[in-house]
Design brief:
Layout: H1 2-29, E1 38-49, E2 52-64, E3 69-82, E4 86-102, E5 105-120, E6 129-144, E7 147-154, E8 168-174
Antiparallel strand pairs: 1-2, 2-3, 3-4, 4-5, 5-6, 6-7, 7-8
Amino acid sequence: MNLFLSINKKTVVILIFLFLGFLKINAQEEKNDFWKHVRYGGGLGLNFGDGFFSATVAPSAIYQFDDNFAAGLGLNATFNNQKNVYKSTILGGSLVGLYNIIRELQISAEFEQLNVNRRFNVNTNIEDDNYWIPALYLGAGFRNGNVTFGIRYDVLYDDERSIYADPWAPFVRFFF
């Protein structure tokens, strides 16, 4: 009986090594196309006026699953300054899903979570603010190559806390 168990253990060990060796050989033959399906894009914003300055950097990346569907991540960093009134820093991230109904028509859903830090001038008698605000955008746009332009709506819009003046927002999206 001991001889039989010894032979079975040896056989099992040999089979495991053969299986693992086959997996390694097979894995080397298959090419990893993951990075060929990743597309990069994002947005840059610059706004200034009489005593006002705003700058935004919002990089993003998506994985193109097929010709119709893509999903990805984005980051957002914004700095605002209204002279003698307030300064704000807004940092956050987002998850985005894109679906092309037809090649030229794209619908999107994006969940964004932002941390808003506002520091008011002492002369305004307004308390400083630091809070998180979520947004869920549903949008539609016209796509031409790497560019999509359209409109989106924030279904979680809060007119007292949102950093935007309106739940409707036009967008231009680039992915290369």
